[in-house]
């Protein structure tokens, strides 16, 4: 009668538990617990991701407006002539209705009236911002921003032009925003802001 050697018996003992662990799966209870944890994590992560995306859109739109202002100011100095940045719905003319989110144009304002007229050169056309963003200007910067050849912001009538552009996500609730503050010298600066209502 053959008896298994000691090494064969040890091999069988070590092989069986290993084989059992390969076959073992998850129980229904374990699967339900894992899914519940994943659902909880997703419910926390989704609002954070939405906030992050909105924040990136606001920052990007702020950079676009700053770029437009910088271009208008530098072109005014370079051309030694008045250059205007105005709201534009169609990229071909200035408008006095709606907000800056509809887009804007930068043009050489030869007759210094703050409006794009025939024969005046368009330097830049900016497309509308994301649909859920709102960009509005107060008082003297509600419709246009005009730079004199010295690089100073001036109204069409000749007075100093200063004001604040507010950028926010459309919402009836309080939310994050940015303000572009244009001083009397025409230089813009950005500051974070909490906007009560953005409609």
Question: Would you mind describing this structure in some detail?
Answer:
By secondary structure, the chain is α+β, with helices and mostly antiparallel strands. The chain has a single domain, classed as minor pseudopilin epsh fold (3-Layer(bab) Sandwich), CATH 3.55.40.10. 35% of the residues lie in helices and 24% in strands. It is built from two helices and eight strands, in the order ααββββββββ. The strands form two sheets. The protein has a four-stranded antiparallel beta sheet, with helices on one face. It has a four-stranded antiparallel beta sheet with strand order 4-6-7-8, covered by helices on one side.
Number of helices: 2
The profile of the biggest β sheet is:
4 strands, antiparallel
The overall number of domains is 1
Which fold name fills CATH's third level, the topology?
A: minor pseudopilin epsh fold
The secondary structure category is alpha+beta
The parts where pLDDT drops under 50 for at least 5 residues are none
- Label the overall shape: elongated
What's the arrangement of strands in the largest beta sheet?
A: 3-2-1-5
Quick structural gist:
This protein has two helices and eight strands. With 199 residues, the protein is of the alpha+beta class. The mean pLDDT is 86.
